[in-house]
Structure formats: structure tokens, C-alpha cells
């Protein structure tokens, strides 16, 4: 499971996680300033957590951001992929937080039963929507909270944008059309989950429904204007490669031809050379607390 908006990160098929890990890491690293600001906001609600759990941690980039934001906390990265958790442990060691960093391998939410004690800050970034019964999973997350513990759920926000509406090749509005296809594929992914339960995506309402209180939301921006760094440009290229590989059959011939030009390093209109490539993303975090007397 990964942190960002490429929903294939969590798909329930056989995946070569070791091969995917570098891209997942690069993506999360690019978004780390956003996660750091979110952690600073959470620290006002939960200033001294003893145990922080990142559910669906992927290769551990955000888990390590949380470890740095909460220097007295023990941090557990929970994920279903052993290869990604190996990366998480290595990252924690490199960053000097390995002595209070551990991993938990298993499918959510059942794996959380192996936690040694209740959680003070529970972070779930775009992992909940890949669980068939989101309300039941949220209830399981909430059940693991310590009295007064905080559940932070990253779901929603706005589709990221990387190019202007009119890029001078193809029909204007390419990204909006790609976004519409992504939304349809996401709906199909949810419907195809075994035992999927339809749920209105009122995340604060769902947090309240599972017995938490004080639910509120805040949106954080990642705003990387043109001209982009090499790392950010490489991320955008990787995103369009993902669109080509995973959504290509759902795009019309004109848009597919435009995407191919954008991915051609020899084309001066491609993502490799364009001066107008940017990254603008908005991630929304919904938080609520457990009752102080719930244990």
C-alpha cells in the first residue's frame, strides 16, 4: 500500500513491490513537505504521542516524516508488503530513527491486532478506500486508539495538475479528461473489491459514526511551480507513464497520441523539455479523537 493518489499502489493483485519501490519512494519524497506540514498541524492536537502507527505505510517515507515530527514516539509502519517494509526499516536506520521504528506486516485492519498497546496517533493515508468495508475498517482503526488518541485519515482532496489546460498540442483539457477516466477506474476498483460496501464519502461523518469526536478537516497544498527541479520533472514523467500504461485503453486516439508525444524524449513538446510543467496537488486530512474515557 502506498501513500499517494496512484490507486494501483494498493491493488489486490500480484505486484513486484521491489520493482515499484523506487518510484513509490520518489513520489512520497516529493510530497514530504506537505506531509511535514500535516504532521505539524497534528502535533497541535496530539503533541506527545507515545505510539504512532502508519497504516498502509508503503516504503515508509511518511512514517519517517512522522518519526521526525514526534521525536519521543515509537513509530510502527504497517503494510501488507514485506519488500516495502524492508525499505521502510532501511530508511529509518539511515535517518537515525531506527531505534524507535518497527514494522508490522499483514493485511489491514486485521494486522493491527498484533500491536502491543493502544495507538496515540493513527495515520491512514489513502489506504482505507482499498478496504471493502470502509466503515468497519474505520471502526477497527478507532478501536486501536488510546483514550484521547487521534485518528488522521488522508482521503479526498483534488486531482493533481501538472500542465496548463492548453498545452499547444492535442485538444485542450487533457488532464481533466485523464482525471475523469481515473475517477471511473477508481469507482470500478471499489466495486470489484470482494464484499465491497457502498459508502458516502463523508469522512468526518464516518469518523463520528465509529464513535470518535471533534472531527474536522484541513487541506494541504503541494505547490511546485515551473521551472521544476529534475526530481519533480521525473515524477511528472512517471505519472504520465502510469497514465499511459494503466489508463491508455480508456483514452481516445487523440489523447493517446498527445500522451505519447509528451513521453517522447526527442519531442520538444514533451515533458522532458517543456518549460510549463508544474506540480499542484491538494490533499485533505480528516481527524477526530477517541473519548478520554474509552478504556
UniProtKB/TrEMBL annotation:
Q: Which UniProt keywords apply?
A: Methyltransferase, Transferase
What highest taxon heads this organism's lineage?
Bacteria
Domain Methyltransferase: from-to ranges: 52-149
> Gene3D superfamilies, alphabetically?
Vaccinia Virus protein VP39
Tell whether Aminoacyl-tRNA synthetase is among the UniProt keywords: no
GO terms of biological process kind: methylation
Cross-referenced Pfam families: Methyltransf_25 (PF13649)
As one GO molecular function, the record gives: methyltransferase activity
Name-wise, this protein is Class I SAM-dependent methyltransferase
Q: Which organism is this entry from?
A: Streptomyces bluensis
